[in-house]
Amino acid sequence: MLTVSEALDRAQMLCAAATKAGADAADALYYCSASTSVAMRLGALEDVERSEGQDIALRVFVGQRSASVSTADMDAGELAKLVARCVAMAREAPEDPYAGLAPEELLFRGPVPDLDLDDGSEADPEALRAAALAAEDAARGVAGVTNSEGGTASHSRTRFALATSHGFAGGYGSSGHSLSASVIAGEGAGMQRDYAWHSAHHRPDLESAQAIGTRAGARAVKRLAPGKAPVGKLPLVFDPRVGSSLLGHLLGAIGGPAIARRTSFLLGKEEEQLFDSTILIRDEPYRPRGLRSRAFDGEGLPTAARDIVAGGRLTGWLLDTASARQLGLTPTGHASRGGGASGVSASNLHLAPGTATPAALMADIGTGIYITELIGQGVNPVTGDYSRGASGFMIRDGQLAEPVAEFTVAGNLIAMFRALMPADDLEFRHGINVPTLRIDGMTVASS
């Protein structure tokens, strides 16, 4: 695998070739990865996968016209053809008054800080096999588990580099470790499946195979013999593993492209009290070992910690350069890049914990539902209307009770945000982290 320095050389070389071929400006993104994954099922080796890949994406600007191309072929002759083709495409593209590189005066300057994203490890297939087997064994050891979809352990290394023709060059490397288990409880038509997983940049930060497997098995067994959910407006409590999706809907609604297109349900809500005044939602791109940590965004602009929601109010939109220009604002360092035009994304996002334990948060609920799984994508980004399939457990007199399944939960995200109450059990495990969340007054329908 290339070093970060070598990756940067490739990206800078392609930018230079583009401007030499007639582009007014260009940026290039190089990405390479190597991963090894081992899957065990019923105590036997089921699969070993090793994959290595690299990709380079070029974006060029000729006046206010632009084009993007990408390839995995690093042959010098093929790259020269790629550059010529991209410049020719840009000359024929329609003009876009908002196209262009990020403002030069705003670019990230100085060395990329060490965010401790790479532990320097190499893949060890035998260790991966042992971890996958241990996770599955722990899950299968839970009474009531009758079958297994397997345990999987993986290791990866990545290198990323971004260069622009107006002076930015930056890159970083990272390692990744993940472990999961998925098992089945019960027999016949009454079978239930559940899972557990964890990922980390450093192997010592990864949760133990015993803990992951035991949690997967216990979750599957608890879901056996589900009943029907009641219908009507009820208080719902969202387990952290599904509650994070609510922040995903928020991110989509405050992204600059949606605002510029006027396709967000939060248009006109900038000054409103969107959440309770105690709610804080924070983006932290510089968190050491964070799964989405980054010092610069997909356009070379610096990132910074930011309270996206403070005092229950939005602090502004998340903007890439194109949407910022369209809105007459300044880009915020939230651009993301793939093979073509940029999009918008946050880094390590979390909703700050409240003061009540999950048990206290549920204590006054006479009849409600604790949601552990959400199904489908029934969210309208323009209106905020929300309707998804779900499963979970009844809450009766403040206590978790029998499992329920095959019902839908519905509401509108604006009303849901206003009613949201967090517990105190926040853990930093994923890219988006939330504590247990309670929302009253949602509509439940059962088939």
Describe the structure.
Residues 121-224 form the Metalloprotease TldD/E central domain. It holds the Pfam family PmbA_TldD_3rd. One of its GO terms (cellular component) is cytosol. The structure is a single chain. The chain has 9 helices and 19 strands. It is α+β, with helices and mostly antiparallel strands and 447 residues long. It folds into 2 domains: 4-221, PmbA/TldD fold (2-Layer Sandwich), CATH 3.30.2290.10; 226-447, no CATH class. It has helices spanning 4-20, 76-92, 125-140, 209-222, 240-254, 256-261, 321-327, 358-362, 413-419, and strands spanning 25-41, 44-62, 65-71, 145-164, 169-185, 192-200, 232-238, 281-283, 306-310, 313-314, 335-336, 343-344, 349-351, 367-375, 385-396, 399-412, 421-422, 432-433, 437-446. The strands form 4 sheets. The chain has a 6-stranded antiparallel sheet. The chain has a 5-stranded mixed barrel with strand order 7-14-15-16-19. A 5-stranded mixed sheet has the order 10-9-8-13-18, with helices on one face. α3 (125-140) packs parallel to α4 (209-222).
In summary, what is this structure?
Helices cover 23% and strands 36% of the residues. The chain has 447 residues and is α+β, with helices and mostly antiparallel strands.
Features:
PmbA/TldD fold; six-stranded antiparallel β-sheet
Number of strands: 19
Number of helices: 9
Q: What low-confidence regions span 5 or more consecutive residues with pLDDT below 50?
A: none
Structural class: alpha+beta
Distance between the termini: 52 Å
Strand content: 35-45%
The biggest beta sheet is recorded as:
6 strands, antiparallel
**Rg on CA atoms, Å:** 24 Å
Output mean pLDDT.
96
In which range does the helix fraction lie? 10-25%
Give the domain tally: 2
Strand line-up of the largest beta sheet: 3-2-1-4-5-6
Compressed to H and E, one letter per element, the order equals HEEEHHEEEHEHHEEEHEEEHEEEHEEE
User: Shape, please?
Assistant: globular
